[in-house]
Design brief:
The chain has 151 residues and is mainly alpha-helical. Helices cover 65% and strands 8% of the residues.
């Protein structure tokens, strides 16, 4: 993406730049041992998706520009959805249609999500707070419905 003839050095320089700027992105890059092409375990820089997208924004290269434009477009769309949540529902419907889901499937999915939200809201009002408690209750419902546990 950078067009660098020495990508390892470019990456090293970019990390130094991020560190010097006090960027929180630098702190989110961690090293894990992963199997390399030669079969040896080597330290490898990794990051989550949000951090990788932020890194792309910091790359000064024409090849990065399409990604930066996409990120700006998606960010703008999400800001619009905050103002008008129905836009988000419409986007979800369109995405499911693109994936080939039927109108019946889409309606069931949206109704199911609404029902799930009402149920978890009720649980919260009844004092359920921890995620493992939600998981336990969800497992009971799933087991009653399908006859098998989530595990």
């Amino acid at each position: 993406m950078t067009g660098s003839s020495i990508p390892k050095r470019y990456w090293s320089d970019l990390k130094k730049k991020l560190l010097n700027e006090g960027s929180e992105v630098y702190d989110k890059i961690v090293r894990l041992k992963m199997k390399a092409e030669d079969g040896k375990m080597r330290d490898t820089d990794i990051a989550d998706t949000e951090t990788l997208l932020r890194l792309i924004q910091s790359v000064p290269s024409p090849k990065a520009e399409p990604f930066k434009q996409l990120l700006a477009k998606v960010g703008y769309e999400r800001m619009q959805e905050i103002q008008d949540p129905e836009m988000g529902l419409n986007r979800a419907r369109e995405n499911w249609q693109k994936l080939g889901r039927s109108e019946k499937w889409i309606q069931q999915r949206m109704t199911g999500q609404d029902t799930r939200n009402k149920l978890t809201d009720y649980w919260k009002e009844s004092g359920v707070e921890k995620s493992d408690e939600f998981g336990f209750l969800t497992n009971i419902i799933h087991q009653e419905w399908t006859g098998i546990t989530i595990k």
